[in-house]
């Protein structure tokens, strides 16, 4: 400074730049600051940049940091909702505060993790401290990641996670750093798997190749301006800005000399008191601001606030794939004025699906995949909910497919030697492109294949047979308890006896000629007839008897009404209870055996949760003991159809996918099955693909569109209708629609009627026999006439058509004639004499 300074150029960090900025402002020395990030990490905004003023003597050669804006637009374009951010130890995490605020406003789930300098030790520590399920969840998180780190650290980190199998070919990582050279791009692509997107700063070149190495009448070294030259590729961005800054100052000095507005350099000192600022500093600052240069960083110029507004980013990307050394293509560009220019969606892939033929492997499972018709000599046609979803995707994306059933008819599980069988095995061995059925998404399967987003929720259910209604011939007696029936019978006998006694103690006054027939038998018959609301023929005229009968009729009315109402309820409502209403109830009991399909997702879920010593669930432990009896062969089946058949025709409970069981119960002909589920959709059904499949994202995007516009719900209602005649959740054999009462409900009534008819016939037979036997002992008229004695008071047996009047003398010694004279017709009309049997006294 003692010799004089025209301008100050610095390439340092933000902390040191603050001191130089204070010095430049105090001494009026133009300060051209070139920000340099430590150890090649991404830049963070310096505090002084955001508070730049027009009168400041510090000019910011490097443009402001726009990494937050770029990465946010890239993530939005990819429609990410969950991802993790890895950052270097040397990176200032405060640089992405704005980005985190934007993602939070969009509802994104973003995690942060710092990458230590010793990456191998960090990865080893995670394997040592994390449990298996935690590693699976962490591995799922690594499928989408953003890396804020230097290219060297990014290479080491990618190499380590690939070698430790923490990422698979379905991962998609974004690396953002302004300081990514072409050589870094090639090495990163070589070391990574899956899909890779790189965001770096770029510098537009002149379209005229002959003018690329000419900058403001100054020719640049060819090795520096040719982008294909290895030396130019190795040149750091910071050094490029240093070169252009020196070139800008040289042009400014030359212009000052030409304009003859040169101010001599003053000797400046911070120690000497009374040292004054440079008088020509303001003029030099204005000249630098007004100037500009086309250098290695394209156009270098400053705005009123002293910052360089010219910055451009390019976004490079690869497609999914397991082949290393893949090509990189330029997907889009970004600048502060126009934003994202281009699209990150692979349109070429979508267009290429028209004409693509996919080989689809499946497992038959109602109602997801079924054979619609099987004609000998013709290809099989398939139908089902999953087939409808696949057809909807095919119609939109334009591809065709060929479908076949897995040879072993299994979904797939990992064997002892590490290989996979079933549907998953077909994809692992690349014999199929797509796996489709009632296939659930599990962490174990995701480790070897890719899955689309779920197109239907999944939960575990139980299929059971409804309790059969037992035939009770005396169901008509069910409304009242046996003790109540006994009380009613005793009440009938008691009231009948009381009525007889009351009538006997105070006999009624009958009209002349009437004969009282009040007996214990008649009283009982009258009480019973009034109880069943049929009445009786014996009159009771005394006040006490009528009071007794009035109370009895009220009692009978209440009892009969209660019986009628309760009988209707018993005949229309089934009150059979079932003890199994949930998975917990099924696990607690041991009387009813249950099982599932071997080597299925349900089988693996029960086994993993029942045998895990760290997170052992009592319910799953009990279920595993039942399912694993005799090695699993006793209670488990090979196919779901076999399990459904065991439930329908035996004592068995089948644990399987709730959606499949609901379809079976809905379409059961006699509605004899019902389901019990846990109602917790912790998983889902997805479409499986090979690892690194390029079709996964576009399949997932189309599935989300089907769910959003309601088409997926329409497809579900086709196979799971809401107006099913069967009740899925009722443990008794009932239907939702009203059903007529059957013969079993009234069998007891008919039985009582038949018993009464038989008993009446038997009594009539005995009475007839008794009457004939008694009549055979009575002598005939001729025998009476010839016999030595005449029977007294023998009635006349001749039929009398007219009303006869027999005169009885007051004297008992007279014997009127047996033949009576008919009354005169006038007398017959005058007197109403009751017809009765007339006895003749001889």
Provide structural commentary.
The longest helix is centred in the middle third of the chain and has 30 residues, at 543-572. The protein has 5 domains: 8-61 and 236-308, Response regulator (Rossmann fold, 3-Layer(aba) Sandwich); 66-202 and 313-342, Response regulator (Rossmann fold, 3-Layer(aba) Sandwich); 351-458 and 681-728, D-Maltodextrin-Binding Protein, domain 2; 460-469 and 580-680, Periplasmic binding protein-like II (D-Maltodextrin-Binding Protein, domain 2); 475-508 and 533-572, no CATH class. A hairpin with a 3-residue loop joins strand 14 and strand 15 (339-342). Strands 5-4-6-7-8-13-14-15 form an 8-stranded mixed sheet. It contains 29 helices and 28 strands. The relative contact order is 0.08. With 842 residues, it is α/β, with parallel strands linked by helices. It is elongated, with a radius of gyration of 52 Å. Residues 321-325, 735-739 and 781-842 have low confidence and may be disordered.
């Amino acid at each position: 400074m003692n010799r004089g300074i025209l301008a100050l150029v610095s390439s340092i960090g933000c902390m040191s730049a603050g001191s130089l900025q204070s010095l430049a402002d105090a001494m009026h020395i133009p300060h051209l600051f070139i920000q340099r990030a430590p150890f090649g990490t991404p830049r963070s905004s310096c505090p002084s940049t955001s508070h730049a003023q027009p009168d400041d003597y510090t000019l910011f050669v490097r443009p402001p940091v726009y990494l937050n804006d770029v990465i946010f637009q890239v993530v939005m374009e990819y429609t990410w909702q969950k991802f993790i951010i890895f950052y270097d130890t040397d990176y200032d995490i405060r640089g992405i505060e704005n980005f985190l605020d934007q993602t939070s406003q969009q509802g994104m789930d973003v995690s942060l993790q710092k990458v230590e300098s010793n990456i191998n030790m960090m990865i080893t520590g995670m394997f040592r401290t994390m449990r298996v399920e935690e590693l699976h969840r962490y591995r799922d998180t690594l499928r989408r990641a953003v890396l804020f780190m230097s290219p060297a650290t990014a290479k080491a980190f990618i190499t380590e996670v690939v070698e430790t199998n923490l990422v698979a070919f379905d991962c998609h990582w974004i690396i953002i750093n302004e300081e990514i050279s072409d050589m870094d791009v090639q090495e990163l692509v070589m070391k990574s798997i899956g899909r890779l997107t790189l965001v770096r700063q770029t510098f537009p070149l002149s379209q005229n190749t002959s003018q690329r190495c000419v900058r403001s009448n100054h020719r640049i070294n060819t090795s520096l301006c040719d982008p294909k030259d290895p030396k130019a590729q190795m040149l750091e961005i910071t050094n490029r800005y240093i070169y252009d800054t020196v070139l800008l100052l040289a042009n400014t000095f030359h212009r000052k000399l030409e304009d003859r507005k040169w101010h001599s350099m003053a000797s400046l000192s911070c120690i000497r008191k009374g040292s004054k600022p440079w008088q020509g500093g303001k003029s030099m600052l204005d000249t630098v601001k007004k100037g500009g240069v086309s250098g290695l960083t394209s156009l270098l110029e400053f705005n009123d606030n002293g910052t360089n507004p010219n910055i451009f980013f390019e976004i490079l990307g690869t497609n999914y794939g397991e082949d290393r050394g893949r090509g990189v293509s330029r997907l889009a560009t970004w600048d502060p004025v126009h934003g994202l220019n281009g699209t990150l969606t692979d349109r070429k892939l979508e267009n290429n699906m028209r004409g693509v033929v996919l080989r689809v492997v499946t497992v038959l499972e109602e109602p997801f995949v079924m054979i619609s018709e099987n004609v000998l000599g013709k290809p099989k046609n398939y139908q089902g909910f999953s087939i409808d979803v696949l057809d909807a995707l095919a119609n939109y994306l334009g591809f065709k497919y060929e479908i076949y059933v897995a040879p072993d008819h299994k979904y797939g599980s990992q064997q002892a030697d590490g290989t996979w069988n079933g549907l998953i095995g077909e994809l692992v061995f690349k014999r199929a492109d797509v796996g489709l059925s009632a296939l659930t998404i599990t962490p174990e399967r995701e480790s070897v294949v890719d899955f689309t987003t779920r197109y239907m929720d999944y939960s575990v259910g139980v299929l059971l047979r409804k309790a059969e209604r037992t035939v009770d011939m005396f169901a008509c007696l069910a409304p009242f308890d046996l003790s109540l029936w006994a009380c009613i019978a005793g009440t009938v006998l008691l009231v009948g006896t009381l009525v007889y006694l009351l009538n006997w103690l105070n006999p009624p006054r009958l009209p002349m000629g009437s004969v009282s027939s009040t007996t214990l038998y008649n009283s009982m018959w009258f009480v019973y007839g009034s109880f069943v609301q049929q009445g009786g023929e014996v009159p009771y005229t005394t006040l006490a008897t009528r009071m007794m009968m009035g109370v009895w009729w009220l009692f009978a009315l209440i009892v009969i009404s209660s019986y009628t109402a309760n009988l209707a309820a018993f005949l229309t409502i089934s009150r059979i209870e079932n003890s199994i209403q949930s998975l917990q109830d099924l696990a607690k009991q041991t009387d009813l055996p249950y099982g599932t399909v071997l080597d299925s997702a349900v089988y693996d879920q029960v086994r993993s949760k029942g045998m895990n010593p760290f997170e052992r669930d009592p319910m799953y432990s009990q279920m595993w003991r039942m399912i694993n009896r005799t090695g699993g062969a006793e209670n488990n089946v090979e196919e779901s159809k076999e399990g459904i058949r065991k439930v329908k025709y035996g004592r068995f409970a089948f644990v399987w996918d709730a959606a499949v069981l609901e379809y079976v119960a809905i379409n059961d002909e006699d509605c004899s099955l019902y389901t019990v589920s846990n109602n917790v959709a912790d998983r889902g059904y997805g479409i499986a693909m090979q690892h690194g499949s390029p079709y996964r994202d576009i399949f997932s995007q189309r599935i989300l569109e089907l769910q959003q516009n309601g088409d997926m719900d329409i497809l579900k209602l086709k196979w799971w209708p809401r107006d099913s005649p069967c009740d899925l959740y009722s443990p008794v054999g009932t239907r939702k629609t009203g059903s007529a009462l059957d013969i079993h409900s009234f069998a007891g009534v008919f039985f009582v009627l038949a018993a009464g008819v038989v008993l009446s016939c038997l009594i009539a037979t005995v009475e007839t026999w008794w009457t004939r036997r008694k009549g055979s002992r009575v002598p005939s008229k001729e025998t009476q006439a010839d016999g030595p004695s005449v029977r007294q008071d023998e009635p006349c047996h001749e039929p009398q058509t007219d009303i006869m009047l027999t005169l009885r003398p007051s004297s008992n010694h007279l014997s009127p004639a047996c033949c009576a004279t008919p009354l005169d017709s006038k007398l017959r009309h005058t007197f109403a004499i009751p017809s009765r049997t007339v006895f003749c006294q001889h």
